[in-house]
Amino acid sequence: MQKLDMRLVRRMLRIFLIITVASITLLLLFTVTKDTLPSLTKINPFYLLLALITILFYIWFETLWLRILVWSVSGWMSLTGAMEFILGGSFLTLVPFGVAGVPLQMYILHRENGLSIGESGSVLLMRSLLLTLILPVVLPIVYIYYSTIFQQGFVLNISRYLLVAVGLGILILVLGSLNTDRTRGFLYRFAKSKKARGIVDRVTKEIFNMKSTLRQFFVRGKWKLPLAFLVACVSRACFFFLPYPILRGIGLSPPVLQTMITQIILSYLLLFAPTPGASGIAEGGGFLLFKPLCPEHLLGIFIVLWRFFSYYLLVILGGILLARMVSVDKLGMEEAEKSLLDAD
């Protein structure tokens, strides 16, 4: 299992690098003009430093509200574990849809706080739910100040894709967790062997554990959940603010609100991008949406800086932390999966 996963990650990393290099090359070929080099003399290092500080604050607040969330159902999580969870998960978004990050994050929750598969799943589910709850806060602002963005074909098509993907995922999860006995009976129709039925029993048991842990969030974490949500809002505000200091750093003075709204739209539209790390799509989407805020001769430079601070840096840090985990933890992902299965 470990070797298969690592082969997949390495393959996705290679694809990511190829698409990223190709995208950046095309961007620079089409945007660099004779005005680009003189404009680069106006770069302000102070604002680029501010961009770095902004993304570091984002990482810090991400780890903080994760630790508060875990605290709602278990003990206090270590900062190292939270960093591995957040940045390791960012690195594994190289595998589309984050499928490789979920086992890693579950393993970290089990290693740090002894949570079972179902309990870890409830933490991941609640984390996704709180992030989703930010949408009703930001969408009215986006619609009021930037409604024309949804008339663009690129945004409209990805929005439809996003809604269908999220909707199907929520529907399957809700139907599967409403009645575990009925879910078990349905899965038994496809599980003919004793081993297959044992797996079904294990899955339905973890669904029950997940439901029980979700109830604990509202019993033991009455004030911790709102606190986690508030810190999550601060974290996302840092991330949405990020393009502004980058634009200021290359000598521009864009409207703060419009810049943040553009980042909000891109953040959610790229969430389920089908390419490794949203490579290619992110660069193309950034080119289309940030074009009104940045002159064309600087647009390619801005996109490279924007992707570096908002994604490449997180991937680099996540890769370093994962390499450290592999060197320190000799059990690896295969043993992690085994320990999770034996946790109960």
UniProtKB/TrEMBL annotation:
Superkingdom, taxonomy of origin: Bacteria
Membrane topology according to the record: Multi-pass membrane protein
Subcellular location: Cell membrane
GO cellular component: plasma membrane
UniProt key word Transmembrane helix: yes
Keyword Cell membrane appears in the UniProt entry: yes
Main location: membrane
Keyword tags: Cell membrane, Membrane, Transmembrane, Transmembrane helix
NCBIfam families assigned to the protein according to its UniProt record, in alphabetical order: flippase-like domain
Protein name (Swiss-Prot/TrEMBL): TIGR00374 family protein
Organism in which the protein naturally occurs: candidate division WOR-3 bacterium JGI_Cruoil_03_44_89
